[in-house]
Amino acid sequence: MSATLLSQNTALRSLTDTHLARLAALEQLDTTTITAALEAGTMVLLGNPAHQGLEPLLVGQPARVKVNANIGTSPLCNCPATEERKLKAALDAGADTVMDLSIAGDLDAIRLGMLAHCPRPLGTVPLYAVGQHILDAERDIATLQPDELFDEIAKQAVQGVDFITVHCGLSKRGAEMAVKDNRHMGIVSRGGSMLARYMLENNCENPLLEDFDRLLHICRPYNVTLSLGDGLRPGAGVDAGDAAQWEEVINLGRLARYARERGVQCMIEGPGHVPLNHVRTQIQGIKRLTDNAPLYVLGPLCCDSAPGYDHIAGAIGGALGVEAGVDFLCYLTPAEHVTLPEEEDVRAGVMASRVAAHVGEVALGRSAAVAREAAMNTARRALDWEGMAKAALDPTTLAKRREAHKQEDVCAMCGKFCAVKMLHGH
Torsion angle, CA of 45/51/55/58, rounded to 10 degrees? Predict the structure, then answer.
């Protein structure tokens, strides 16, 4: 009989032993359901023992659908203090995880600062740090050395990073398909484009795919979960479901199985831009090809023409995605495709994705989501504003909007015309 995932990954087993009862109560699941899902790879427990003060987190249904917030510096907007405020805004708004996508400044200092101030799992894209080093030295990305990338991953594992996006499924064949097969948007993933350039310029294979065992050897002792990146995700709705995308998904499914057999947890990253009528089939296809591994989705964005409102387009696609099987939503903000998000953008993005997750879970009949809806309906019928606040996904905004009329038992839209109050006692 082959070894189980938990028996091979001592860090994961220790986390499970320590936190299983708390997680079961939090998720309203039996402990046996959780351990069976971890072994099957349909659920992951995010948590690196080196991340001090961390609250490990389950991702994968039937656990609650989780929401991630991306923050980080860019060459045009580089203020570490602003990123600290955005981290706080994300956590205050209810983000379950945060990813540091910084590509400018002292990346080690930024990352260590976030780890110190983030009690929830923190993710990164290690290739970004390597890319910064290469580009700042005025080198071509094609000069990347595989050792540079693996050394960076090892350093971040030691620092305490809980999950990493690694574009292991992006093959040279897939890169050629994306570049040469008349894709409207080509490759829109930063990491995907960097690796594609490296492969195409050097006529070689992706080192993360070619030396996948080396990656597993680095990550297993720290229970660093691999978020197998979608470097060929569609960047325009018309590209969704093309051969390049599915070639990568097939690779991701194979790699996730291989990793799980060797004691390393994996999530699958899913599509970006997908028309609404294709969301369900995309999600179901990816889940089937990856053995129902936890699916981590950006959006999906169901239209391409809403800059300034991409958090709404993403929430629409996200709600349908959750109902179809998505486990983990990566937020979009009103700044998507335009600029680096500010604090208010972060908050708006987290809330949009939390609403999407809740809408999807209501559609699935999840007990916690249905109970929240019932509590809100009961409170509204009783004009119980305190009860409404307890049931609200965002009680802070409810209180702010009601501030001017908080002494009234009715809202300011209807006043004495309140339909609910009109029929009290009948």
Answer: -10
